[in-house]
């Protein structure tokens, strides 16, 4: 049982095209929210941290978690041994969409015919090609003409380039949830912009407090992140965790940690932030727990150095 993707025909990517193919595979996986998880134990507490996908030993690429879907699936990626993609169960949502795009990319690079299919069924590649055109400023055309079975599947020699499809539209997520990827192509909603301003105000209140700072901030950070996992199902980013642990004596880092704790309290059932104007808004997403969503957004801000600098100036 489950949903699988595979190819009719064995891929064969020319050696001279492999570096670009691997680079684009990484870009698709990264923009699609593919990640791995890092498990640590510290101060007697257990944490699961998010790690963006990266090339491993011998240029292999492996991932199994999707940030937007907030689910683990089975391992998928690029094998340095076979020089092609591999996958297992891919679900039916965002993990699935990203894998479809990767397999279409493989088809484009392969010198041998290799037609992707989902559980034996060929699929139209228009949306996937549109996303690839957006990501790589390319002009891939949909020359694929699937018939009823793979014996009559063939490629046409001509076709018009598919119009680009942005990442949020392809993945079917809100740009707000792409805060970790905030760059020029991520446009926050007005509600998100207002919320970020409110966060900055709360942060400034903490930094302006003249009293002594509590001791042992590394332990406070770990305890706060454990709460976020247990109460909200939300994970922090491994690179931001290492940065915060290494700079826990800095007042700006301490304020960010304290704000995280206050947000977890304030977004708990009956919490004060749920009742305040501007601290909650309608969000079309699979999880109706806005408190968990808010903590996820806050962690994304802290995990993105450019956005963190913009919002909190550190």
Fold and architecture overview:
The structure is a single chain. The chain is α+β, with helices and mostly antiparallel strands and 314 residues long. The protein has two domains: 5-171, no CATH class; 175-312, no CATH class. Helix content is 41%, strand content 16%. The protein has ten helices and ten strands. It has helices at residues 18-31, 94-109, 126-136, 167-171, 190-208, 217-232, 238-246, 251-266, 290-303, 305-312, and strands spanning 5-8, 34-42, 45-52, 61-66, 71-79, 84-86, 115-118, 121-122, 144-145, 154-155. A five-stranded antiparallel beta sheet has the order 3-2-4-5-6. A three-stranded antiparallel beta sheet has the order 1-7-8, covered by helices on one side. A two-stranded antiparallel sheet has the order 9-10. A hairpin with an 8-residue loop joins β9 and β10.
Order of helices and strands: EHEEEEEHEEHEEHHHHHHH
Number of helices: 10
Task: Choose one word for the global shape.
Answer: elongated
**Low-confidence blocks of residues:** 147-157
Q: Please state the structural category.
A: alpha+beta
Give a count of the beta strands, DSSP E runs of length 2 or more: 10
As a percent range, the share of helical residues equals: 40-55%
Q: What distance separates the N and C termini?
A: 48 Å
Residues in β-strands, percent: 15-25%
Q: Total domains, how many?
A: 2
Main β-sheet description: 5 strands, antiparallel
Overall residue-averaged pLDDT value:
92
Rg calculated over all Cα atoms: 22 Å
How are the strands of the biggest sheet laid out side by side? 3-2-4-5-6
């Amino acid at each position: 049982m489950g949903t699988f993707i595979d190819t009719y025909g064995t891929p064969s990517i020319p050696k001279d095209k492999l570096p670009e193919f691997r680079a684009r595979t990484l870009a698709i996986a990264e923009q699609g929210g593919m990640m791995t998880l890092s498990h640590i134990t510290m101060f007697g507490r257990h944490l699961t941290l998010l790690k963006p996908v990266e090339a491993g030993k011998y240029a292999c690429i492996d991932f199994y978690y999707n940030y937007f879907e907030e689910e683990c699936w089975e391992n998928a990626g690029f094998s340095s041994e076979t020089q092609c993609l591999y996958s297992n169960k891919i679900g039916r949502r965002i993990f699935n969409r990203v894998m479809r795009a990767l397999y279409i990319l493989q088809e484009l690079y392969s010198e041998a015919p290799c037609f992707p299919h989902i559980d034996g069924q060929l699929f139209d590649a228009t949306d996937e090609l549109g996303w690839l055109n957006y990501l790589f400023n390319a002009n891939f055309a949909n020359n694929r003409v699937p018939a009823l079975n793979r014996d009559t599947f063939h490629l046409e020699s001509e076709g018009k380039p598919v119009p680009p499809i942005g990442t949020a539209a392809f993945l079917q997520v809100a740009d707000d949830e792409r805060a970790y990827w905030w760059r020029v192509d991520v446009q926050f909603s007005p509600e998100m912009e207002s919320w970020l301003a409110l966060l900055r105000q709360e942060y400034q209140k903490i930094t302006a407090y003249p009293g002594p700072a509590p001791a042992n901030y590394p332990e406070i950070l770990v305890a706060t992140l454990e709460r976020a996992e247990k109460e909200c199902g939300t994970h922090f980013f491994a690179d931001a965790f290492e940065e915060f642990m290494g700079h826990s004596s800095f007042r700006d880092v301490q304020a960010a940690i304290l704000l995280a704790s206050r947000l977890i309290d304030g977004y708990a059932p009956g919490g004060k932030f749920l009742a305040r104007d501007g601290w909650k808004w309608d969000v079309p997403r699979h999880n109706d727990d806005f408190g968990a969503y808010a903590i996820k957004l806050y962690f994304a801000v802290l995990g993105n150095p450019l956005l963190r600098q913009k919002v909190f100036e550190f």
